Amino acid sequence: MEALGVALALVFLYAVYYAVRVGVRDGIKDSLKDREVRVKESEPDR
After folding, report:
1. What is the value of pTM for the model shown?
2. Which site in 12, 18, 32, 35 is 20 to 30 Å from 46, CA atoms measured?
3. DSSP codes of every residue in the chain
């Protein structure tokens, strides 16, 4: 029974780790996209 609890804890931790990793990656991608858009918008002003 203890082994089941440990296995569930490991699965839960991995799920959290995966979600954080994917979320961070998407967040970085979004911020890079926003920066590119901002640069494109500001170029005609120069």
Report:
1. 0.49
2. 32
3. -HHHHHHHHHHHHHHHHHHHHHHHHHHHHHHHHHHHHHHHHHGGG-
Amino acid at 27: G
Residue 43 is classified by DSSP as G
Position 11, amino acid: V
What string of pLDDT tens digits covers the 46 residues of the chain? 899 999 999 999 999 999 888 888 887 788 878 877 777 777 766 5
Considering its fold, how many domains does the chain have in total?
1
Token pair of 17, please?
């780790």
Whole-angstrom Cα distance, residue 5 to residue 30?
A: 37
